[in-house]
């Protein structure tokens, strides 16, 4: 059974500014397998700067790959071991085979993975070139029903980020959760100073305050600041995953951010979430700004995670030019999992 590949380019309505520079577009591949009249779909959108292989490496490994229908989750995991070095490609193949199996059984993919809940709270990503624009973005998100707002920090000075966050907190009030994402853009010293200075704003958490390779720096920041720290890009380095969770003397983060395209698929992500839960850590799912199938797959993963108080980062449709709303576009700050076979998109 041969994979069919189709190139996809998704352009953002405006560049998304991160500490690693602006993100303007996403280039990937749609994967498709067909067996006995049924189709399974996946996507591979590599993002090398955030922990995956390059697009060229993903395309190369997928171009001549043959796969077989699977009968169980265990069989699927075993069949994809050769793709562990290319996590975005592995995620795409896993998604295609999971949807094919789900359609054969007539169930949503989530029910292949475990007991699922149908309502998934999500956060809104707020953006703006200045404080006024950021406040307007925040107000629109709250009016649309979002209870958690996420803001990228680290691309500007700490003082400017702090001023903008103060403006947002004043605008939305105390009951809206504010989370920030530094994408590893701060030094350890800057992270400590910034997160201590932001304590009065009741920040829910900070994603990846320091560089992905600096696990001990992450551990010290997490231990010494009042704002909970989440590991994100650090999990893109396979050998770091256990180091983040091990208590030495405390875990390097209190929460794990699960990106299926970086972790190699839904199944490795779910296994990591269960390990985190057993260690007393929280987790939630985000994407790498992918297409509709990847976003739907991430929502199916979120539906079977251990119980968590954290909203998931799955509201991205509105950020892309020409990407239509679908069944996984949030309404009132939540995604409702469609009760249909496969992904439901």
Total separate domains: 2
Helix content: 25-40%
* Number of E strands: 12
Major sheet details: 7 strands, parallel
Architecture of the largest domain, CATH level 2?
Answer: Alpha-Beta Barrel
Strand order within the widest beta sheet: 5-6-7-8-9-10-11
What is the overall silhouette?
globular
Radius of gyration: 19 Å
CA distance, first residue to last residue:
23 Å
CATH topological fold name of the largest domain: TIM Barrel
**Could you say which structural class the secondary elements and strand pairing correspond to?**
alpha/beta
Count of helical regions: 12
- CATH H-level superfamily title of the largest domain: Enolase-like C-terminal domain
Q: Given this structure, which CATH class of the largest domain is correct?
A: Alpha Beta
Element pattern in H and E: EEEHHHHEEHEHEHEHEHEHHEHE
> Low-confidence parts lasting 5 or more residues at pLDDT below 50?
none
Report strand %.
15-25%
Name the average pLDDT.
Answer: 93
List the main descriptive attributes of the protein structure presented here.
single chain; 345 residues; alpha/beta; Enolase-like, domain 1; TIM Barrel; seven-stranded parallel beta sheet; three-stranded antiparallel beta sheet; 12 strands; globular
Can you tell me about this structure?
With 345 residues, this protein is α/β, with parallel strands linked by helices. It is 35% helix and 21% strand. It has helices spanning 55-63, 73-79, 87-105, 110-113, 131-143, 158-172, 188-197, 215-224, 240-245, 260-263, 266-278, 292-302, and strands spanning 4-18, 21-35, 38-44, 119-121, 124-125, 148-152, 177-181, 203-207, 229-231, 255-258, 282-285, 334-336. The strands form 3 sheets. Strands 5-6-7-8-9-10-11 form a 7-stranded parallel β-sheet. The protein has a 3-stranded antiparallel β-sheet with strand order 1-2-3, with helices on both faces. Helix 1 packs across helix 3 and helix 5 packs parallel to helix 6 (158-172). The mean pLDDT is 93.
């Amino acid at each position: 059974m041969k994979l069919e590949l189709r190139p996809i380019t998704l352009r953002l309505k405006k560049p998304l500014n991160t500490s690693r520079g602006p993100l303007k577009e996403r280039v990937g591949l749609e994967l498709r397998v067909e067996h006995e009249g049924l189709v399974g779909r996946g996507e591979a959108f590599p993002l090398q700067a955030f922990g995956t292989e390059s697009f060229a490496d993903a395309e190369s490994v997928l171009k001549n790959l043959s796969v077989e229908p699977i009968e169980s989750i265990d069989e699927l995991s075993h069949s994809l071991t050769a793709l562990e070095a290319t996590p975005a490609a592995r995620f795409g193949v896993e998604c295609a085979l999971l949807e094919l199996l789900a359609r054969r059984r007539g169930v949503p993919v989530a029910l292949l993975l475990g007991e699922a809940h149908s309502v998934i709270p999500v956060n809104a990503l707020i953006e703006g070139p200045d404080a006024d624009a950021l406040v307007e973005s925040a107000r629109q998100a709250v009016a649309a029903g979002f209870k958690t707002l996420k803001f990228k920090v680290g691309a500007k000075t700490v003082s400017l980020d702090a001023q903008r966050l103060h403006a947002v907190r004043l605008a939305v009030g105390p009951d809206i959760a504010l989370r920030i994402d530094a994408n590893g853009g701060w030094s350890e010293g800057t992270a400590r100073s910034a997160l201590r200075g932001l304590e009065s704003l009741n920040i829910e958490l900070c994603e990846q305050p320091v560089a992905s390779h600096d696990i001990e720096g992450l551990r010290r920041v997490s231990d010494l600041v009042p704002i909970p720290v989440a590991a994100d890009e650090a999990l893109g380095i396979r050998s770091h995953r256990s180091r983040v969770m091990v208590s030495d003397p405390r875990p390097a983060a209190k929460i794990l951010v699960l990106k299926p395209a970086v972790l190699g698929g839904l199944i490795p992500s779910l296994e990591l979430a269960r390990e985190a839960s057993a260690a007393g850590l929280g987790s939630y799912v985000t994407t790498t700004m992918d297409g509709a199938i990847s976003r739907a797959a991430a929502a199916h993963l979120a539906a079977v995670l251990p119980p968590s108080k954290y909203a998931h980062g799955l509201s991205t449709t509105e950020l892309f030019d020409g990407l239509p709303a679908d069944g996984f576009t949030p309404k009132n700050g939540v995604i409702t999992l469609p009760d249909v076979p496969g992904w439901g998109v």
